[in-house]
Design a protein that fits this description.
149 residues; mainly beta; 1 helix; Umud Fragment, subunit A; three-stranded mixed sheet; seven-stranded antiparallel sheet; globular
């Protein structure tokens, strides 16, 4: 678990590719989310307030983001707050279960749908229903550690 320190710090836990409760539902964090104990701290001078930080797993955003990078994010209150074309951490309800990823979010030509786009050309764009988004957070910054020691 990482804790981002800013004017009004808060925290969360987990890794992208795992459980959606780590991101939080749109809106305020739950009591369970507030109860997590931070295992680390990140302080980035000049960065606006963030709600949490997660360590990434997977390669859908390579070469911009890699597994092991840390994303600092702010939760959105609803999908109405989306800035189309920006990078988001999101959890989407699918027939196969939760799909959790960091992707660019683009408006679809079809009403009520959005398109998730990654940097890695090995991944296809994915069209999703906005109503299936369980949790969404705007990626404000990323941290890359070039050494694990």
């Amino acid at each position: 678990l990482f804790k981002y320190t800013a004017a009004n710090p808060s925290h969360t836990t987990g890794r992208v590719g795992r459980r959606s409760e780590n991101i939080g539902k749109p809106g305020r964090p739950t009591k369970e989310q507030k109860a997590y104990t931070p295992v680390g701290w990140i302080s980035v001078p000049g960065l606006p307030k963030c709600d949490g930080a997660l360590k990434l797993a997977g390669d859908g955003m390579e070469p911009i983001l890699r597994g092991g990078d840390i994303v600092l994010y702010s939760r959105l209150g609803s999908v109405a707050e989306i800035f189309w074309g920006e990078m988001y951490l999101l959890s989407v309800d699918t027939p196969m279960g939760d799909y959790i990823a960091v992707r660019y979010l683009h408006r679809s030509e079809k009403p009520g749908l959005a398109v998730l786009t990654g940097e890695n050309s090995g991944f296809r764009d994915t069209e999703i229903e906005l109503s299936k988004i369980r949790a969404i957070a705007f990626v404000k910054a990323t941290v890359r550690m070039n050494s694990s020691k």
